[in-house]
Amino acid sequence: MTHQAPARGDAAGSTDGRTPWALREHAFLGDGERGALVSPRGEIVWLCAPRWDSEAVFSRLIGGAGQYVVCPEDDWHAAGGSYEDGTLIRVSRWVTTDAVIECRDALALPAAPGRLVLLRRVRAERAPAGGTGVRVLLDARPGFGSTRMSTPRRETGESGTGRPGTVWTSSGGGLRLRWTGVPEAEPGDDDSLRAALTLRAGERRDLVLEIGPDEAGDSADLLDPRRLWEETERHWHRSVPDCSGLLAPRDARQAYAVLAGLTSSAGGMAAAATTSLPEHAGEGRNYDYRYAWLRDQCYAGIAVAAHGPHPLLERTVGFVTARVLEAGDALRPAYTVTGAHVPAERSLRLRGYPGGSDRVGNHAGSQFQLDTYGEVLQLYAAAAGHGHLDDPEARRAAQTAVNAVEHNWQRPEAGLWELEDRWWTHSRLSVVTGLRALAGHLPDKEARRPRELADAVLAETRRRCLRPDGVWARAADDGTLDAALLLPLARGALPQDDPSTARFLAAVEEELSEDGFVYRFRHDERPLADAEGAFLLCGFMMALAARHQGDMTAAVRWFERSRSAYGPPGLYAEEFDVVQRQLRGNLPQAFVHALLLENAVRLAR
């Protein structure tokens, strides 16, 4: 039997009465099928189950009920931690007055699409003679906190270790939960499970949480922590390549791990793990990014292709190819990670993260954005160097994209970042870049058509969107700047010596940069930092554009400045508040990690 949780306001109340952490403090766990956010206090404050776009079972991040806590009993502690190199295995570390406690967290790999396993290994590195206390709380609330799980039942099983053990089970909201490692837990009046552990120096405890469909059967060995940890470690070591020859190798490896942790076995890459986190408090710019934007995924594929023929590239090309062949001229900018349509936006009965909202779904799923075809063509050109264009399906998809550009390039469309339908400059320069890049990998006879089409699109775009001062305007009817144009200019939309490129870079530096960071465009007459955060993607674009112009000193300067805009776990959000040094928007933002990786590869050369 399930119970309805309290209405708005009550559902968001925390068990300890503490306020939310700043976004920059949260770590991310991902297995490709779903992701979790962990606070410095050891709380899993966000986790959708069983998939990225499912309803959350832990939604405290946006004001819902549900959390999973492992932390010191002693509130007087300093929190820290780090990722194990090249993985999304996170080790939180707490130093109390007389003890040091670590908790190693990961979503188990290889992942199953319908079933998640969350591993938590808590250990006392140092403790007084009588041991140190650890507080544990499990309170799963499906449906973004709207549904209470059934009263937990204590069952006895082997838990895969060959020894009798306690397995706690509960169900609700179509999901079934199993939890091992805490036999002394006690159910609370709210059907949560709580325990107070005492660990002596060197002692550890393994907690394994499984969440899957309610009809799933039992399999005791699936909860064996030793086997699960070993498989997870092996999977990460196989999945993330060596980046020792790149600029900022540790950050590059971490960026690759984030991209891998966001990419489903079905091929789609979630743009971010979260929804509704504010880009700027009270401005209404809060979106659900738990879907696969083809543009973002192409950025990731291009970055990976620049480094090598890694498995992530193959999954990206496969997912994009399937979407292009299915849709043709009607390609959507965003899909679920399995290729389904994105639902329309709706609001939940939650208070939202401070300054944000409680929005799920995304209107971009029904838009037409021309630049998506340009990024798709650039992906195929990048993947051609690793033999992917030899595949007949990919070749046919590339031709389909060329046809779609030919049929649609003159029509107004939504453009980058889901704006209103207009004649956006970025969209046209993106398809010019893609057409030319693809043509460079085709036989002369086949290359003629995309080259001629690129020339036609560029000529009309130059006529309509190049200002009298030789600087590219944001749109045919808007003479302001849009820093998004940096990327097609960096990737060869124009000849390297075209004077408009240097003029545009100088204009962006003068009008859209501050303290070494780059903003997208001006929203109004307010100072840049008052209107929104710096757009980290554009900072990394600026680095690539400076490199394209041959100014390596400037390129490295823009790269390093943008690379500095992360929180303690080393993750990037969409925007960065330059004044307050805070992250803004959903976390972790895949396209920022993708452009960091691409810069690390290209600048190392």
Your description of this structure?
There is one protein chain. The strands form 7 sheets. Strands 2, 3, 4, 5, 6, 11, 16 and 17 form an 8-stranded antiparallel β-sheet that branches. The protein has an 8-stranded antiparallel β-sheet with strand order 7-8-9-10-18-15-14-13, with helices on one face. It has 14 helices and 27 strands. It is elongated, with a radius of gyration of 25 Å. Mean pLDDT is 92; it is low at 1-15 and 159-163. Helices cover 31% and strands 20% of the residues. With 605 residues, the chain is of the alpha+beta class.
What is the 3D shape?
Answer: elongated
Terminal CA distance: 61 Å
Strand content: 15-25%
Mean pLDDT across the residues is 92
Give unreliable regions as ranges: 1-15, 159-163
Main sheet attributes: strand count, strand direction, barrel closure:
8 strands, antiparallel
How many distinct beta strands? 27
Structural class: alpha+beta
- With helices defined by DSSP (H or I, 4 residues minimum), what is the helix count? 14
Please outline the helices and strands:
Layout: E1 3-4, E2 27-30, E3 35-38, E4 43-48, E5 56-58, E6 67-72, E7 78-83, E8 90-95, E9 100-107, E10 116-126, E11 132-139, E12 147-148, E13 153-157, E14 165-172, E15 175-180, E16 186-187, E17 193-199, E18 204-213, H1 225-239, H2 249-261, E19 292-293, H3 294-307, H4 311-327, E20 334-335, E21 346-347, E22 359-360, H5 371-384, H6 392-408, H7 425-439, H8 444-465, H9 486-490, H10 499-511, E23 513-514, E24 517-518, H11 528-531, E25 534-535, H12 536-548, H13 552-563, E26 575-577, E27 582-584, H14 590-604
Antiparallel strand pairs: 1-12, 2-3, 3-4, 4-5, 4-6, 6-11, 7-8, 8-9, 9-10, 10-18, 11-17, 13-14, 14-15, 15-18, 16-17, 19-20, 21-22, 23-24, 25-26, 26-27
Helix pairs in contact: 2-14, 3-4, 3-5, 3-14, 4-6, 5-6, 5-7, 7-8, 12-13, 12-14
